[in-house]
Amino acid sequence: MFKVFGFGAKEEIPELSQEEKTKAILKQAHDFEQALRAMDYVLDDNADEGLALLDESDAKEASDQTINALARGVIEFLEATLGFEAEEMKKASATLAKAEALSLKSRERAQKIGLKSSSLYPPGTVYAVTYTESCLLHALLMIFSESMMEAAKAILKLRKSYYMLQEILETIKAANKAKKLKITSGSEDKESTPATFITGGDAFNSVDIPYELTPEEQKDKDLLQFAEQIHSMRTKRLSGAHIGNSPAINRLRGELGLQAMEDLPEEEITDHKVLSDDIDLSQATIDEFVHSGVNLCFGILQVVISLLPPAIGAVLSVVGFRGSREEGLRLVWKATKQRNVHGCIGLLALMFYYDGPFQFTDDDFDIPAAVKDSSNSEDSEDEEMDGPTLLHPGKILEDALLQSRALFPNSALWLLNEARMLSGKGRLEEAVALMDSIDVSKIRMRQVKSLMIFDRAITLIHLHQYDRAAEDILSLLDISDWSHAFYTYFAGCCYLENWRMCEMGLMKSDKKDEYQKKAEELIFTSVNLLGKKTFKSKNLPLDRFILRKVEQFKAKKEELGVENPLDGIATSPVHEISYFYNGYNRMSEEHLELTKKMLTEYRNPAIEALDSDQELIKDLLVSLTLRRLGHIQEGCDILDEKVLPKFFSIQNGKVKYIKKTEDPWAYPTALYERALFTWKLEGMDGLPESKEWLLRAQGYADDYELSTRVGMKIKAAIDRVDHSL
C-alpha cells in the first residue's frame, strides 16, 4: 500500500497524485518516529534494542533508509565519542558517510516530486537537516583522526554544514515570521491546515499532513489508522512511555540526589502527560525534527568555533566560520526543549560545558553577565535566555537533567551526569553515593561504564580517598582502551599520597609498605605503556605529560643519589591531576585544608632540595587552595612573589616572557589564575586588569601539552570578561 519512494530504483521519478503524496508523508513521519524511538533506546542504555528496531525497519518495503542510516550513525557516534576507540570511530564514520549520500538523494527526490511534508518549509528541508547533521558528526570524527588529509576534509565538511545550517535557519526564521503575520492578519492558509479525517461522525486531525484532504482521503480508513498510529507513537515518545517504561512523570523529581528519589510518590500515573509546558503537542514530527536538529547542530558548531584558540579561529574566519558562543548556547538550549534525541544530545553538551570535568564556566570567575537591550531586535521574542541566565543557568539546567533522568531511568549516562552536577556543587559524598547506587557490572554500554568508573575515581581523589580511587582506575585496564599509561600513573599517584599520609601520621594503615611498593611500581612503569591501548597511535596530551613527569622524577633521583625512587618526587603529582579535573573548585573546606597540609608540610629529599620548578608547581597549587579557603590576598601574594617572576615580568611597560618547558601547562595556567585573583580582590573595577592577565596567558605559548584544555578555559574567560566590560 505504501510503496511510494522505491529507494534504490534507477528509473525516472514519476509524478505522484495527492493520495500517493499523503501516503508518502505519513510513511516518512512513521519512519522518523521509529528512528527517534530507536535512538532513545540507546539513551536508556539499551543500544541492542535500538539497533534491532532499525534492522526491523530496514527490512520493511520502502522504508526511509536515510533516517535509519542517520539514526544508526548517531548511535555509533555516541558510542565512539564516549570511548574514543579507533574501531568504533571508523565504524561510525562509514555509517555517517552513507547517511550523507542518502540525504542528498532523498532531498533531491522530495524536491522533484514536490513532497511537502511540512506546513512551514519547502520540500526536502528535513533531508537538508539529516545531511548537515550527518556531515557535522562525520567531520567531528574526522578531526580526531591522525591523518592530515582527513583533517583537511573535515574542515570542508564543517564549512558545508555551516553554510547549509545558516540557510535552513534563515528559512525557519522567515517561515516563523510569515506564520506570525498570518495569525495577526487572521488569514488562513489551506496548505498549512492540518488534515481532518471523518469516519463514523468522529473527526481526527493529523498534524503530520500539512494540507486539506480530499473527500475520499478523509474517509480512507487505512490512512486514518496509519495517521492515528503515528499520533500514538509521538504521544508515547513525548511522555517517555515509548521504550518500555511507564510515563516519565512518575519519576520526575524536583531536587538532585538519592534522597529525592526515595521521596517520589508510590502511586503510578498511566496518562501520557508530558514533563514540560515547552513541549508542543500539536507539532508535526518532521517540523520537530527540523527545528531541533538545526538548533542543535548550528548551536554546537558555534560554541565549538568560539572556544577554539585565536590562531585556529582566525584561519576558520577566513573561510567563513564565525562563532558566537552566546548565540550558540541559546540555540542548544532551544534544542533541549524538544523531547527527542537532539534535545538529549544538546543537554549532554550543556552538561559538559557547565558541569563537565573541565568546567569552561569556572566557578571562581563568577562575573555577572551584562544584560544587553534586545528590545529592538526582530528576534527578541525568541531569545528566551538572557546573558546572565546563559552564563549561570542554575536550576534550569538542573531541571533539564532531572527530566532526562525521569525519561531514561535505566541509563547510567544520565545518572553519571547527575553525579557530575552534584560534584560541581561541592556535594562530593553525595556524588559518590549516587554512583555507588548502580551496579557498574550491569551497565551495557562499555564506554559509559568506563566513564562512570573514571569519574568516581576523580571524585574520590577530591575526597582524599585514594585507596578506592586507585582500585577504580586500575579496573579500567580491563574495560577501556583509552590510555593504559595514564590509568597506571594515576593509580600510582594515589598510592604515593596514601604512603605520604601514613608517613605524616595522618592515616593509620598496616598497608604502608604496600602503598610504597605499588606507588613505585605503577608510577615508574606507566611510561612503558605509552603508545599502547590509546585511541590514536601517537601519545595523548596526558600521555606526554606523564612521560615528562616520570623523566623528571628519575632525573631528580639520580641527581640526589637517593635509594628510594619516591624520594625523587617533590610536589605530590595527584594534586596536579586534581587540578586538571577541577578539584580545587569542588573540595570542601575540610579537604582543602588537608590538601594544603599535604602540599606544605610533607618533607623528603626532593622537596628539601628546593628545586625551582617543583617549588613553582607547589606554590601555584597552594595559592589556589588559599583562595578557595578565603585567604585571597595571601594566595595572590604567593602567586606574585613566588610563581610569576620565574617566567613573567613587565619591563618598561612591555610584557616579557621567559620561555620554560619544565612544566608547560603551569605557566599559562598561573597567568589565568592571576586574572581570577584580580577579579576576587577588585570585583567589577578589576575587570580590565583581569582581561590583561588573560591575554597574557593566551600569549604565553601557542602549543604545549594540554594546550587545548587550558586554551579553551582561557578563551571562555576572555569572552566572559568582554561580555561584562
Task: Walk me through the topology.
Layout: H1 18-43, H2 47-59, H3 65-83, H4 86-113, H5 125-143, H6 148-185, E1 195-199, E2 202-206, H7 215-218, H8 221-239, H9 258-262, H10 285-307, H11 310-318, H12 325-336, H13 341-355, H14 387-391, H15 395-407, H16 412-424, H17 428-436, H18 446-462, H19 466-475, H20 484-503, H21 512-525, H22 541-560, H23 574-580, H24 589-601, H25 605-608, H26 612-628, H27 632-643, E3 648-651, E4 654-657, H28 666-682, H29 687-699, H30 707-724
Antiparallel strand pairs: 1-2, 3-4
Helix pairs in contact: 1-2, 1-3, 1-8, 2-3, 3-4, 3-5, 3-18, 4-5, 5-6, 5-10, 6-10, 10-12, 10-13, 12-13, 13-15, 15-16, 16-17, 16-18, 17-18, 18-19, 19-20, 20-21, 24-26, 26-27, 26-28, 27-28, 28-29, 29-30
Description:
The chain is an all-alpha fold. Among the domains are: 18-355, no CATH class; 610-725. The chain has 30 helices and four strands. The strands form two sheets. A two-stranded antiparallel sheet has the order 1-2. The protein has a two-stranded antiparallel ribbon with strand order 3-4. A hairpin with a 2-residue loop joins strand 3 and strand 4. The longest helix is centred in the N-terminal third of the chain and has 38 residues, at 148-185. The radius of gyration is 28 Å and the shape is elongated.
